[in-house]
Amino acid sequence: MGMSIQQIIFMVLSFVALVSALGVVLSKNPVTSVLCLIVTFFAIAGHYIMLNAQFLAVVHIIVYAGAIMVLFLYVMMLMNLNSDIEPHKRNWLKYAGAISGGALLVVLVAALRDASVPALSETATEIGLIHNLGKLLFTQYVVPFEISSILFLSAMVGAVVIGKKD
Amino acid sequence: MTLLSIDWFYLVEKILLISGVLVLSLVVAMYSTWGERKVAAWIQDRLGPNRAGPMGLLQPLADGGKLFFKEEIIPTHSNRFLFILGPSIAMMVACMTSAVIPWGDTITVAGRTVSLQVADVNIGILFIFGVVSMGVYGIMIGGWASNNKYSLLASIRAASQIISYELPMGLALIALLMLTGTLSLKEIVEQQRHGVWNVCLQPLGFLIFLICAFAECNRTPFDLPEAENELNGGYHLEYSSMKLGFFLFAEYINMFISSALIATLYFGGYSFPWMDSLGWGENAIALLGFFIFFLKILFFIFVFMWVRWTIPRFRYDQLMRLGWRILIPLALANMLITGALVLLRQH
Questions:
Q1: Least CB–CB distance from B123: residue in A31, A65, A130
Q2: How many helices (H) and strands (E) does chain B have?
Q3: What is the pLDDT of residues B61-110, one digit of tens each?
Q4: Chain B environment of A130 (Cβ under 8 Å)
Q5: Where are the membrane-spanning stretches (chain A) (predicted)?
């Protein structure tokens, strides 16, 4: 046996993540795109669990798959998008999109080419567990944590103000 | 016995446990349909099902058989894949929560200590949240893929209802977490075993959680997604045969799991008074604990039915007002008071 069970699971998860991520981009139907994105999120949550970061995995599911994607699906279903009402894209727009996407890819490859990926040490994997993460968030990183909560508060106030408009 | 660095006995033990829990959920859900009719009949002074078998006990089998043999209709112009995916997700999500519920204490079989819980993860409550937030997909996808305006309306109602009531439910649970200091359901039960039931410490939290559980299960008085007189039947309007059965069945499984959760979080789970002073063997106590837990669950299933046949359905604006204007402020106040008291006790 060349591969351990962890490697097999990693391969399967990565395969699912890549295929469903491609599905998001390539699918013609927007609802299928959204569903593919949800599958991608699940595969990534699986990766978090492999890294022993259960808390991160489950919060990832709750926030992204459970809340944000429901909203996406909601909007997609109500807009009832299909190919008949899709605006016709001009050719030069497609070329511009391909070129800027390619440029982004070049930048990413250039940035990541020399980046080293340090192997995970056994003790470092404990950080994803909820006790350690909570301690760290509320001691060392308490100021950024509180500031981000103000960000949420302002977003909430904004939503209420928009909702109140008659 | 280890091979491939996997403990195979452990695997077999877990597979047996998972199958057991699954079968239990399905059987309880099946007989909940019978129980629902019997309770309805009792409340309305009727007899209820009494033709198939003694006391109508074979009625669920007859219903299931009928659903299996009905013609399967998939509407034209509907997305076939998503149409089938909808009820499948509903059923799968309904069965998933049972993984973190502790069904009993540990038992010892042939020198091996077996925990009667599929997964004692240290994020048990968050896992439940994750699964609950998935529950909306089955209804939304099913309702949209039917290509029917009534189904779409019903699924939008269901989605907004479930999202709205997730918030007070979470806030009620946060207050409980402050008291227990753990996310593991097993530990929450163990704390109640050696102390008092959480319902005594969190009466308001329990009430909020109960109301939200009704809303999450789409049960009366929150069954607006299947309001037959406004929506011709709801999100499963276009479904027939066993796909309809899956949607209906998922509701009963949800009810069973919600009752198990309420019993676990607020009513001591598998623990019961004088559990540790009976002086029986460990296995006997664990089995008795499971039995008591089951009785608690049955009681809450009865409460679900009792409410359904007593209270009429809310109007949609009433539903939203209850969720956003009453339950969330109440849950926030409950959380603040609990936090203050916990802080006071620590100093």
A1: A130
A2: 13, 4
A3: 888 888 888 888 888 877 788 888 888 988 888 888 888 888 888 877 77
A4: 122-123, 183
A5: 6-26, 33-51, 57-80, 92-112, 141-162
Q: Domain containing A51 — which CATH number?
A: 1.20.120.1200
CB contact under 8 A, B137 and A55: no
Assembly ipTM: 0.81
In a domain, A120, yes or no: no
Q: CB contact, 8 Å: A108 with chain B?
A: no
A8 vs B contacts (CB less than 8 Å): none
Q: Residue B310 in contact with residue B43, Cβ under 8 Å? A: yes
- Prediction pTM value: 0.86
Q: Which helix (H) or strand (E) holds B23?
A: helix B8-43
Are residues A131 and A101 both part of a single domain? no
Alpha-carbon distance B62 to B202, whole Å? 43
Contacts with B, A 76-95, CB within 8 Å: 77-78
Contact B102, B270 (CB under 8 A): yes
Measured between alpha carbons, how far is B64 from A26 in angstroms, rounded to an integer? 41
